[in-house]
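Narrative of accomplishments. A recurring question from our advisory board has been how the design workflow behaves on a single, concrete structure rather than in aggregate. To address it, we present the structure tokens for one chain from the evaluation set, followed by the sequence designed for it. No filtering or post-editing was applied between the two.
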């Protein structure tokens, strides 16, 4: 299995599942030294892969099998672990990043609101 071909999505569902599983913070868990960080990385990889598949289905794509964390542990080779961790970090970063278009739209709405309230006051 090629790790590069696996789609990951760190969305709100993954974020809140991670907050529940890792109350001290997922990133803190991923940065630990030793097995704990790999446990968190496998869990996050499986969760983000599941969310990506659920999104595909929501968008009307043909359903594929959703692998469990245990199945991912069997599928991923030791030489692929570093790439898996890298993909997890990238997915989290992308999920937490704000879209510039959304920010611009909000700013335009706020400007219009400010103009309207300035006229009425």
């Amino acid at each position: 299995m090629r790790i590069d071909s696996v789609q990951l999505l760190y969305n709100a569902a993954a974020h809140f599942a991670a907050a529940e599983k890792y109350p001290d913070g997922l990133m803190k868990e991923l940065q630990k030294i030793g097995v704990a960080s790999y446990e968190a990385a496998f869990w996050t990889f499986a969760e983000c892969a599941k969310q990506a598949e659920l999104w595909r289905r929501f968008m009307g794509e043909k359903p594929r099998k959703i692998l469990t964390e245990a199945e991912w542990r069997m599928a991923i080779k030791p030489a692929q672990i570093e790439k898996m961790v890298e993909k997890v970090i990238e997915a989290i970063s992308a999920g937490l990043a704000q879209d510039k278009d959304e920010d611009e739209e909000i700013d335009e709405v706020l400007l219009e609101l400010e103009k309207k309230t300035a006229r009425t006051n």
